[in-house]
Design brief:
Structural class: alpha/beta
Number of helices: 9
Radius of gyration: 20 Å
Largest sheet: 5 strands, parallel
Order of helices and strands: EHHEHEHEHHEHHH
Strand content: 5-15%
Length: 241
C-alpha cells in the first residue's frame, strides 16, 4: 500500500456536567452541533453528570494533553458548569461557593491556554434558570428537600459572565436569555433543571452563533465521492488535502 499521512481531525470539545453529557441524545444540542460539523470536525462529548467546576478543574488536564498530536487541532472548547455548583450549601455535596466557581472557570481557561487553546476558542455557558416547583417534585421523589433556587442560579450565571469578560472569552448567558422579556422559560426545561427538547434547540441556536465563525473555514475532510478517481482511487484518497 502507498505511503499516506494520517488525518488528524479538528475537534470541538464540549465540557460540562449532565446537561452536556446528555446533549448527544436525540434532539440534543450537542448532537445538533455535531451534525452541523459532520465531515469537518469531531465534536467530543466530555460531559460528566453531577460534576461541578471544582471537580471539572481537577479532571480537565486528564482530558486534554498538549503533548498529544491529536489534541493539537482543537478549534473550540465549551465550558458549561454552574447548575451543580449553585446547589444550596448544606443541601448537596455538589455545592461550590460562587467565588470559587468563578476562579475555577478562570483556572480552566488558563490551563487551556497552556495547552494551546487560546481564549478566542473558549466559550462559557452559564447555568440555565431553575423552575423551583418542578425541581422540588424531583427532589421529593429522591427523598430530599428542594436544594436549588433560581435566584442563586442567577448569581452563578452573573459570575460566569463576569469571569468570561475577565478571561476574554465569549459566553452564552442562558439564565438571562431564557428569561428575557418575562417569557415562560419553563418550556426550555424538562424537570425544572435539565433541558427539554425546546431548551436543547435554544442552546444549539445560541451556541452556534458563537461557534460558527470559529469553524467556518474548516474544509470538508476527504474528497466528495463524485470527485474520486474511479480508476485510481488511491490518487484521490491518499493525497494530502
Amino acid at each position: 500500500m502507498s505511503k499516506f499521512t494520517s488525518i488528524i481531525w479538528p475537534k470541538v470539545i464540549l465540557f460540562g456536567d449532565s446537561i452536556t453529557q446528555v446533549s448527544f441524545q436525540p434532539n440534543g444540542w450537542g448532537a445538533e452541533i455535531a451534525d452541523k460539523l459532520a465531515r469537518k470536525c469531531d465534536v467530543i462529548n466530555r460531559g460528566l453528570s453531577g460534576y461541578n467546576s471544582r471537580w471539572g478543574k481537577i479532571v480537565l488536564p486528564r482530558l486534554i494533553n498538549p503533548e498529544n498530536s491529536a489534541d493539537s487541532k482543537i478549534e473550540a472548547v465549551t465550558i458549561f458548569f454552574g447548575a451543580n455548583d449553585s446547589a444550596l450549601e448544606g443541601k448537596s455535596q455538589q455545592h461550590v461557593p460562587v467565588h470559587e466557581y468563578s476562579e475555577n472557570l478562570k483556572e480552566m481557561t488558563r490551563f487551556l491556554a497552556s495547552a494551546g487553546v487560546t481564549a478566542d476558542r473558549v466559550i462559557f455557558i452559564t447555568p440555565p434558570p431553575l423552575h423551583e416547583p418542578s425541581w422540588e417534585k424531583e427532589c421529593i421523589l429522591k427523598g430530599c428537600p428542594l436544594n436549588r433556587h433560581n435566584s442563586v442560579a442567577g448569581q452563578y450565571a452573573q459570575a460566569c459572565v463576569e469571569a468570561a469578560g475577565q478571561c476574554g472569552v465569549d459566553v452564552v448567558d442562558l439564565w438571562t436569555l431564557m428569561q428575557k422579556d418575562e417569557q415562560d422559560y419553563t418550556v426550555y426545561l424538562s424537570d425544572g433543571l435539565h433541558l427539554s427538547e425546546k431548551g436543547n434547540q435554544f442552546v444549539a441556536q445560541h451556541l452556534w452563533r458563537l461557534l460558527e465563525s470559529r469553524v467556518a473555514d474548516l474544509p470538508f475532510i476527504l474528497p466528495y465521492w463524485g470527485d474520486v478517481d474511479a480508476k485510481s482511487p488511491e490518487s484521490s484518497l491518499l493525497c494530502d488535502q
